[in-house]
Write a structure and sequence with these properties.
With 131 residues, this protein is an alpha+beta fold. It has three helices and eight strands. The strands form two sheets. Strands 4, 5, 6, 7 and 8 form a five-stranded antiparallel sheet that branches.
């Protein structure tokens, strides 16, 4: 596997399209941080890190609207790929749907959203857009 982050986002996307409640993905430190951000911003219902074997797994409980049965996540888009890395400075931070969505960045201070990186005045690699 050349791009584990794209695989993680694709597993979430496929589970949402199939209306699954829970999805399991192989764990890594970067995926754990992305999962924490998705939980803090209200895009997923809950998550659990399971330590089994050398790698472990992440169980993600997806969030749906009870009335309309639509997911809280409308789109997960990978921005920076192993073949073409995308970096940004804090002055020209990407705006996802005019601030309604979030961009997840990998910075020197850790993984964070675009708004947090702007407040700390640091840039980094744009991992994905979520809205």
């Amino acid at each position: 596997m050349t791009d584990p982050i794209a695989d993680y986002l694709t597993r979430l996307r496929n589970a949402i399209m199939a209306n699954h409640r829970v999805v399991e993905v192989p764990a890594s430190n970067l995926k754990k941080e992305i999962t924490k951000i998705l939980f803090e911003k209200g895009y997923i219902l809950n998550y659990k890190f399971i330590e089994d074997g050398p790698q472990g797994t992440i169980k993600v409980a997806l969030k749906y609207d009870p009335a309309t049965k639509t997911s809280a996540i409308k789109c997960l888009k990978r921005v920076s790929t192993p073949g073409l890395r995308k970096y940004t400075g804090y002055k020209n931070m990407p705006s996802v749907i005019n601030g309604l969505g979030i961009a997840i960045l990998s910075t020197s201070k850790g993984v964070m959203t675009d708004k947090e990186a702007s407040q700390l005045k640091i840039g980094g690699e744009v991992l994905c857009y979520v809205y």
